[in-house]
Amino acid sequence: MPPGSPSDRLTVAALTTYPVKSLAGVDVAEARVEEVGLRGDRRWAVVDPAGTKVTAREEHALLGLRAEPRDGGGIRLLDPGAGRTGDAGGAATLDVEPPRGATPVAVSFTGQDRARPAGAEADAWLSERVGRPLRLVWQDDGTHRPVRPDMGGQVGDRNSLSDAAPLHVTTEPSLARLNDWLLETALERGEEPAAALGQDRWRPNVVVAGGEPFAEDGWRSVRIGDVPFRATMVCDRCVMTTIDRADLRTSKEPIRTLARHRRWEGATWFGIRLAPVLPLARDATISVGDEVVPG
After folding, report:
1. Rounded CA gap, 229 and 294, in Å?
2. pLDDT digits (tens, 9 = 90+) for 124-145
3. pLDDT in tens, 218-239
């Protein structure tokens, strides 16, 4: 097909922010791009009383909770399952403001050893639902958490509380190819084919439509709308992708099948991570429908 045809054009199919690390996120039509990623993305996180980070890898129940952004950097915590028999008591929602005046506490994020505590009410809300003592903490505006050089970071790069880089990108063609592989694996093993995976298994900020499967592996730079980004690394995948978002149960997939086709350097790989090219324009924004131009 000639260059410039509709199938060659890459566009943003979906945008998602995750205000609290490991909680379900929110789909948005557009998002402001900041040095640390999309505005409001993963600026809050869950830790235990000692400050050790707690994610859905250990506590699947976190994926069953949601966080929505509010004006001024605050969030609304939501428990979609509230009211069901056996669920935690208390209000199904809780509004939390950025604790700008709170004394920072020790945390154990790579590149960041302090964060501001949200307070007792938010801690109790989370603890009741997960079933263990937890604390909610916030990365304040002045924190400079670098992107590690071994993960593609450069001098001046900053990150939110996300794992490795400010922006996570997946593509529709790559997921379609993986779903084909998953079906093949099930048939080979005589197993009942599972429902096709959705993009929510990967928790991307940006989903790209168009192009060839896994072409993103080779991207070195990307322009989304008018905003330039630099690719930092292909994304290695963890056990969180094996948690079904509907019932929070784990299985061997998709890691089992992904490892057959996408394993190197002792890990399995799907999606890429990006960092914005600095300095950013003051009004840097990306939107659903924006053209995506890799380089």
Report:
1. 9
2. 999 999 999 999 999 999 999 9
3. 999 999 999 999 999 999 999 9
* DSSP structural state of residue 250: B
- pLDDT, mean of residues 86-114: 89
d(CA 66, CA 204): 15
Burial class of residue 111 in the structure, from the number of CB atoms within 10 Å of its CB (0-12 exposed, 13-18 middle, 19+ buried):
middle
Dist CA 165 CA 155 (whole Å): 13
Closest CA to 74 of 37, 46, 99, 104: 99
Q: What pLDDT was estimated at residue 72?
A: 93
Q: Write the CB contacts of 150 (distance below 8 Å, at least 6 apart in sequence).
A: none
Instruction: Look at residue 66 and give its three-state secondary structure.
Output: strand
Q: Does residue 90 have a pLDDT over 70?
A: no
3-state secondary structure the chain: CCCCCHHHCEEEEEEEECCECCCECEEECEEEEECCEECCCCCEEEECCCCCECCCCCCHHHHHCEEEECHHHCEEEECCCCCCCCCCCCCCEEEECCCCCCCCEEEEECCEEEEEECCHHHHHHHHHHHCCCCEEEECCCCCCCCCCHHHCCCCCCCCCCCCCCCEEEEEHHHHHHHHHHHHHHHHHCCCCCCCCCCHHHCCCCEEEECCCCCHHHHCCEEEECCEEEEEEEEEECCHHHHECCCCCCECCCCHHHHHHHCEECCEEEEEEEEEECCCCCCCCEEECCCEEEEC
User: Which percentage of the chain shows pLDDT scores above 70?
Assistant: 95
Confidence label for 164 from pLDDT (cuts 50, 70 and 90)? very high
**Which amino acid is located at 108 in the chain?**
S
